TrEMBL record:
The lineage of its organism: Bacteria, Pseudomonadati, Bacteroidota, Flavobacteriia, Flavobacteriales. This is Alanine dehydrogenase. Residues 149-297 form the Alanine dehydrogenase/pyridine nucleotide transhydrogenase NAD(H)-binding domain. NAD(+) binds at residues 134, 198, 220, 239-240, 267-270, 298-301. GO terms for biological process: L-alanine catabolic process. Its EC number is 1.4.1.1. The gene is ald. The active site is at residues 96, 270.
């Protein structure tokens, strides 16, 4: 199969779809790999690294798409890429369709096969291709939140870990999944007081067992959220509904109940956000302020640490890329029902129910 690795063109996205090590494995399996010039540069991988393992370097993104049967990316295609995607393409990347009607319509129009990293499942229901980026984003949420709590950038002026004689800052984490647990772990490591909320009692019991005593669990409800936002300094939104739009757990009116300079880091923004006032931002302009509350809503947080992120992503995507390349997408998905759950749009039709529901489209079309 001919596999293309284009350069990511989303704002400040420095990751690349495949490391040279991953390309080596594909070529070893008798596939042809086209890599766009400088595609890996932002992640610390150079054209010569890809040439050394047998890849062909192409100058433009148009050449990569034209030459390839399967496109392996990191982030969803943006408007400039829509015309490049054709009916013969298999596109394997993060899509997050439920948060973008324009992207969904464009991929339906292309009639390509769109397989989303974020909906591929393991037998136990976990999301193996989303997990490593959720781990990165969860840890970064505290790193960024701690920075934006500083007064020069309009935060409350709170040091999360406190100092002797001064209480530590308070962190509220919404969601006890991968993002939430990693955020809680990082915040606890800094010495902050952490409250983590979820509606899954089994997950809360797990958190209670593995976290230190200054991480407390609480059942998630509107009443409890309203109570906690009044005195917590940093709020991390880490709620995920597989393939669907994230629920708004914090509404616009709740911002007035927060103290000025409170920071919200909405990691769920690429699925629409779990805060009503969230809107996607970029690494260039990561924050905005509403009602004196600082919002950090960068939709590709792991793109800020591309070397770590690209290695972590290739570790988990490569086996699936090999399967798709070796068997073709139809046979690969027939043989692997967990991979088949990654199918979102196929030949002009939505095949993942939550996407249709996100736009109130007829489920009959699924």
């Amino acid at each position: 199969m001919k596999i293309g690795i284009p350069k990511e063109i989303k704002n400040n996205e420095n990751r690349v779809g495949m490391t040279p090590a991953g390309v080596f494995e594909l070529i070893k399996n008798n596939h042809t790999v086209y890599v766009q010039k400088d595609a890996g540069f932002g992640s610390g991988f150079f054209d010569q690294d890809y040439k050394d393992v047998g890849a062909t370097i192409l100058e433009t993104i148009e050449e990569v798409y034209t030459s390839s049967d399967m496109i392996v990316k990191v982030k969803e295609p943006i408007a400039e890429e829509y015309p490049l995607i054709k009916s013969h393409h298999v596109v394997f990347t993060y899509f997050h369709f439920a948060s973008s009607e324009a992207l969904t319509k464009a991929m339906l129009k292309s009639e390509a096969v769109c397989i989303a990293y974020e909906t591929v499942e393991d037998i136990d229901g976990t999301l193996p291709l989303l997990t490593p980026m959720s781990e990165v984003a969860g840890r970064m949420a505290i790193q960024q939140g701690a920075k934006y709590l500083e007064k020069p950038i309009k935060g409350r002026g709170v040091l999360l870990g406190g100092v002797p004689g001064v209480p530590p800052g308070k962190v509220l984490v919404l969601g006890a999944g991968t993002v939430g647990i990693q955020a809680a772990k990082m915040a606890a490591g800094l010495g902050a007081h952490v409250t983590i909320m979820d509606i899954n009692m089994k997950q809360l019991r797990y958190v209670n067992d593995v976290m230190p005593n200054h991480v407390v669990t609480e059942f998630s409800s509107e009443f409890n959220i309203r109570k906690r936002i009044k005195d917590h300094d940093l709020i991390v939104g880490g709620v995920l509904l597989k393939g669907a739009k994230a629920p708004n757990l914090i509404t616009r009116d709740m911002l007035k109940e927060m103290r000025p300079g409170t920071v919200i880091v909405d990691v769920a923004v690429d699925q629409g956000g779990c805060v009503e006032t969230s809107k996607p931002t970029t690494h260039e302009e990561p924050t905005y302020i509403i009602d004196d509350v600082v919002h950090y809503c960068v939709a590709n947080m792991p793109g800020a640490v591309p070397y770590t992120s690209t290695l972590a992503l290739t570790n988990v995507t490569l086996p699936y890329v090999l399967r798709l390349a070796n068997q073709g997408w139809k046979k690969a998905c027939e043989n692997d029902k967990m991979l088949a759950k990654g199918l979102n749009v196929v030949n002009g039709k939505i095949v993942y129910q939550e996407i249709a529901e996100a736009f109130n489209w007829s489920v009959d079309a699924v």
